[in-house]
Amino acid sequence: MALFPAASRLLTSQLQGVSRAGMLIKYxxxxxxxEYILTDKQGQKKNVGVITLNRLKVLNVLNEGIANEIEDAIxxxxxxxxxxxVVITGSEKVFVAGADLKAMxxxxxxxxxxxKLYFSGIYNCKKPIIAAVNGYAFGGxxxxxxxxxxxxxxxxxxxxQPEVTVGTIPxxxxxxxxxxxxxxxxxxxxxxxxxxxxxxxAEKAGLVSxxxxxxxxxxxxxxxxxxxxxxxxxxxxxxxxxxKAAFETTLQHGLHFEKSTFNTTFTTHDRKEGMTAFIEKxxxxxxxx
Length: 289
Fold this sequence. Notes:
- With 289 residues, the chain is α/β, with parallel strands linked by helices.
- The chain has 13 helices and twelve strands.
- The strands form three sheets. The chain has a six-stranded mixed beta sheet with strand order 3-4-5-7-9-12, with helices on both faces. Strands 6-8-10-11 form a four-stranded mixed beta sheet. A two-stranded antiparallel ribbon has the order 1-2.
- Strand 1 (25-27) and strand 2 form a beta hairpin.
């Protein structure tokens, strides 16, 4: 989860003078104050939760504080019935440039061994989470994006796992998720060299779903969130659960899990409503149950 030194030098120069004004905001429905992130609801129906990483003076590098705030915001959006999907983004210059090496440098094995798994709250969220990545997603930034369900990228985005260059290995999913997304050979090349790949290369490899101009990225991610939110939340959650199972089990077990989950939809109002609406040639009125 390390910060790539070249990115640090370049982005520090680019972001000189970035103001921290507005960094502390109030999440309207909960009264929660955040120091490192901004949260709001976007879309025509305000049904897409948006988390904006806002620790720009240090390139959004991850520490325990920002990680905890992301997970807290995710938990609140997960419980918010008006929200059907969540977008996580940074600025047009940087998504996350890595981990806070100054805070990490003198830590001991005993200290790091006690830490919880990073991004477990993102993984466990029932609602789909879209990473909208502009600029650098290095180390923990790449791992944060991979913990999400869908990755959209700006045309200038770059992805890297540079931990080997600072004497460690990825510690928040890099060695586990990256090979599942892009295959062992490409993942080995990235992890063993620390060399970044472009947004276009990431899309070609299957890490990124779509690539957009940087100034259109968040709007496109919100648009995707709106489309997802137009469906039944309970059915979307079951879809997400079933797709994730494909990465964690054998094909036969996965097929049985899928069939069991498919059968479960027949206990819901929304399955019957969806099929009825299709037959009657009208829009469905999902109740999310």
